[in-house]
Amino acid sequence: MDVLSKEGAxxxxxxxxxxxxxxxxxxxxxxxAKGKGxxxxxxxxxxxxxxxxxxxxxxxxxxxxxxxxxxxxxxMEITQGVTYEFWTFNGRVPGPMIRARVGDTLEIHVTxxxxxxxxxxxxxxxxxxxxxxxxxxxxxxxxERVAWFKLLHPGLFxxxxxxxxxxxxxxxxxxxxxxxEPEKGLPKVDREYYVFQSDFYTKDAAEDTTHLEFSHEHGxxxxxxxxxxxxxxxxxxxxxxxxxxxxxxxxxxxxxxxPNLISSFHVIGEIxxxxxxxxxxxxxxxxxxxxxxxxxxxxxxxxxxxxxPGDYTLVDHAIFRIEKGAVGxxxxxxxxxxxxxxxxxxxxxCEGCLVHP
Length: 357
Ligand SMILES: [Cu+2]
Fold this sequence. Notes:
Blueprint: H1 12-24, H2 29-33, E1 42-44, E2 64-79, E3 82-89, E4 98-101, E5 105-112, E6 123-124, E7 144-150, E8 155-160, H3 166-171, E9 175-181, E10 191-200, E11 211-212, H4 216-220, E12 226-229, E13 242-245, E14 249-258, E15 263-268, E16 272-276, E17 286-289, E18 291-294, E19 298-305, E20 310-316, E21 327-333
The structure holds copper (II) ion.
């Protein structure tokens, strides 16, 4: 099997463990895909980084969907001019987004290139079984583990590292989203984006510092220095802003890694046409919603049409958090709609305004 062909990085016991896992899944799609019985189509997952979303699933039958997650520590900006040692999946925060379909089997390869020697793993909230897969995907530097998980429930799910201490692995950036489409897929929209909120905790430092370090103590006290979208203050500002045109329907796949804060997710100037509350893609969505709650380890899917051109602001409506980075923009281009939004005077911007550019 391919797990054994990896250039000596995988030891024999891991190979045997993988065989055992595959045998235990005998009769399952994973075993079938390995030549026992009717083969399932095998496809490599299209992995995207926020704010990009993998394309909708066109097929209407189950498949074996393969993905590889590598864990590593990487120094990147957390806000302009200030770096932080993030713990990452595939070198980014949040990690890649996976898109699959209910009934698919996820074949996940988990590797570790973290020179610190820390173990890492993946707990997929989309997975049914102990630890969401964490228990069978724990790896240290140079190892690879493979596991097969049948995706029994549709929904938008968070995944995260759950190696001990779990709060440190989440607080440092090891999370992301997996979308499991319902059998018939999701209603078509014009644009889809991946937005992920999280809070970061750093040691006290001088105002002019250019590097910040993690503080477990501030995490335990739930005292964040940053609350951000897509891993960095300002990731959805300026050139990073999301884009749309008037008349289009926009969908946001929104997750919250926490580790501590519940998001009161709101888009200033918009009302959500559809909210798939708690990312439940089975029940009918709620309509005409202003703000929706997204807990740590939870997600939501919101759809809205954009009618009026201009800048729309993504916030956590626990509004002090915009000073900690929880603000982003959606720029909408198009012709004015004076039948919907009109004023006597031109728009004016207040000095220092963080939400109305
Ligand atoms: Cu980890």
